[in-house]
Specification:
Elements: E1 2-14, H1 20-25, E2 27-38, H2 40-45, H3 54-65, H4 72-86, E3 90-100, E4 110-118
Helix pairs in contact: 3-4
């Protein structure tokens, strides 16, 4: 039985960006993840060991968010690589990385990059 498991609105204060002031002051980021995977085992067993552990996923993303990079594209790729390596049962991963109130001349609520990875 195929299903989707979503973690939306993972929030971090990190130091990603191409400008020196972004590396000094940081910015707020939001990560949204949607995993497409077989949920049969967990649906039948009702055991955490048979599904994605949200806390583990959060910790993996948090670890990656601690290492500054220049681009949201690279950040999304790094997160997807690690999650695909850790969770081989995931068939499709949809990830969005958003920088809240990016440093632009005008007003912008967020800039974001989304990618979809298929196994």
């Amino acid at each position: 039985m195929q299903g989707k498991i979503a973690l939306k609105g993972l929030m971090f204060h990190s130091f990603h960006g191409v400008h020196s002031f972004e590396r000094e002051r940081g910015n707020d980021f939001r990560i949204d993840l949607v995993f497409q995977t077989d949920i049969s085992k967990a649906a039948l067993s009702d055991k955490l060991a048979d599904t994605l552990d949200y806390e583990e996923v959060y910790q993996i993303v948090a670890e990656i968010m601690e290492v500054p990079v220049n681009l949201l594209e690279h950040l999304a790729y790094k997160i997807s690589e690690k999650l695909f390596a850790e969770y081989t049962e995931v068939k499709i991963l949809d990830i969005t990385v958003a920088k809240i109130l990016p440093p632009l001349e005008g007003r912008c609520e967020e800039s974001s990059v989304s990618l979809v990875r298929h196994r």
